[in-house]
Q: What sequence folds into this?
């Protein structure tokens, strides 16, 4: 299933909730302020790198670019645009937005 | 069309009551959903478990106490209420502190249930 | 494929309304169908025709109206949430209609995928 | 003592509007003065006269209007934030007025204490 | 100075930010969903008990009662009603709301 | 009245840009405040430091890029911009990553500055 997270990992515990609940081989898409979780060198990076061993992790490029961090994405995180976001929703049986 | 289709709907409640309206308005969706003869389950995770914490007394904040509505869910044939064990523990709560009978599940088990749904609404 | 979209936050304040709109546009561009966009919680504030953003900013409400006009997308505002927040027929933007929560459940039943955008 | 109050969230959605109102009432009851309540961000939605909550719920907008009527509290809605969100003279509740952000700074200067309620 | 916090410590990092910034002998008032931070036996209790050694900590009773937790307050946390909230603001030179 | 009174106003920015409107609308307050001849300082803490992260490109989300406004603050004689050191470190950033010159301060030092203010607006 596709899990969608939109909160900064520094401000909210939502990403942690998602990571602790999602089933192995699930997919996680980071949008809006959650894209900060996908950046290198931050205190949240280790958590995400570990999660990459368990989930497919995607991040929405337009949200990265808006925040000036498109060049800082952790290796292994997959970039998608809005068309790719639509494809992800279509490819997975269901989706859950962690609001 | 919807005639005859039965889908699995899960309502995920992750927010504390009163600080925001999500808990109340989520409950309003669930009551309407009951009329549609779908397969409905409710999940209370994270701060959502506080929605069921017994003993809300809202007079002092002049807001309507909607906790009795949780007890009315049974009358709407909504009986599958799942509560996250880890969320209760982190908050020093047990199922006895809650205003309705629930099934307490590990977080991982909730993750499995979530996978089986057709539609997940999260509040 | 048929998509239903739930929008839970008002325009401008949270990015949710923007994300939902851009998702809808991308889905339509790929030939998918949006069976309904349902506006709930503060999402009902997307439907006010009285919005007037600064000249150099996007007009979130008009964007939705255009989506309804050009693609026939059904934009439904929850009546209970709308009354609480002061959205009624008299300030409703074109392309939106006010109806009950049943329309959300129905959209969830009809659509192949339901995606929520909120805070 | 003179208080200025800043309200940053809309009615019903966040408790901020309730907390701000109850704080104002308690301050007035203690003989303090509320020099101004300034509504910013989604707080401007406290000022819509079109709100109609369920019968058994509090009417947040009318409560503010009564505070203005009975205690002469100056309720100011930020014009820029209001235009973005569809609050104008035509849907403005009684007791509120629309003005600029300067009114917030001025209130901060005049008041002994400024208290913010938000999300 | 008076620091006002209104977010649940389980959902948001705001209380941590406040505790890490406030000066010793400052006052902290917990309102709205932040009142959960003042309850016994939770995973956030140790943090608050430690903070009690450094700050005066207040909690808004009507918000506790609304949430059914008025009987679970940690020893040493001071209860105030809205009139007490007004007094706290008046007694301190300034206040900061950690939104 | 306000004539002649000079108060210390601090604007505390703790939220990331674009996900919510607070950063933008906070900036609008600051620009107006500049006309009042008060003692103004801006603080960027927690996710607020992301507001100053260089290189915002907002075309893809169709939202106005308001980062240039931070560079215009100097023209309004608003020159005291304080950034929390711990927030930068936690996010893997340094002052070189920011779009304007700032003074980097320890969190505790920001706490001390906060104590000296007459009015603190927090966004």
A:
């Amino acid at each position: 299933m596709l899990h969608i997270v939109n909160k900064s990992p520094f401000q909210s515990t939502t990403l942690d909730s998602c990571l602790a609940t999602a089933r192995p081989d699930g997919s996680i898409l980071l949008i809006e302020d959650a894209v900060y979780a996908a950046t290198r060198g931050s205190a949240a990076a280790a958590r995400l790198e570990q999660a990459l061993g368990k989930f497919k992790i995607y991040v929405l490029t337009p949200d990265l670019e808006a925040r000036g961090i498109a060049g800082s994405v952790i290796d292994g995180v997959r970039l998608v645009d809005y068309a790719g976001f639509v494809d992800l929703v279509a490819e997975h049986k269901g989706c859950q937005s962690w609001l | 069309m919807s005639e005859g289709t039965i889908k699995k709907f899960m309502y995920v409640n992750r927010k504390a009551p009163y600080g925001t309206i999500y808990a109340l308005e989520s409950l309003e969706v669930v009551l309407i959903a009951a009329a549609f003869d779908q397969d409905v389950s409710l999940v209370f995770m994270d701060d959502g478990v506080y929605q069921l914490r017994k003993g809300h007394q809202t007079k002092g904040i002049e807001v309507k106490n909607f906790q009795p509505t949780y007890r009315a869910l049974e009358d709407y044939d909504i009986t599958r209420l799942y509560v996250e064990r880890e969320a209760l523990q982190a908050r020093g709560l047990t199922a006895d502190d809650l205003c309705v009978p629930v099934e307490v599940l590990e977080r991982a088990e909730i993750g499995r249930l979530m996978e089986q749904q057709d539609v997940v609404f999260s509040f | 494929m048929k998509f239903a979209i739930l929008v839970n936050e008002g325009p401008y304040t949270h990015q949710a309304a923007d994300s939902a709109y851009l998702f809808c546009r991308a889905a339509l561009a790929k030939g998918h169908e949006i069976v309904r966009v349902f506006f709930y919680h503060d999402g009902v504030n997307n439907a006010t025709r009285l919005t007037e953003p600064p000249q150099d900013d996007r007009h979130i409400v008009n964007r939705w109206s255009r989506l309804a006009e050009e693609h026939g997308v059904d934009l439904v505002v929850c009546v209970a949430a709308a009354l609480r927040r002061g959205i009624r027929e008299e300030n409703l933007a074109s392309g939106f209609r006010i109806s009950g929560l049943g329309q959300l459940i129905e959209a969830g039943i009809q659509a192949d995928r339901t995606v929520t955008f909120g805070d």
In short: Chain F has one domain: 3-122. Chain F has a mean pLDDT of 95. The longest strand of chain F covers residues 8-13. Strands of chain F lie at 8-13, 39-44, 81-84, 103-105, 119-122.
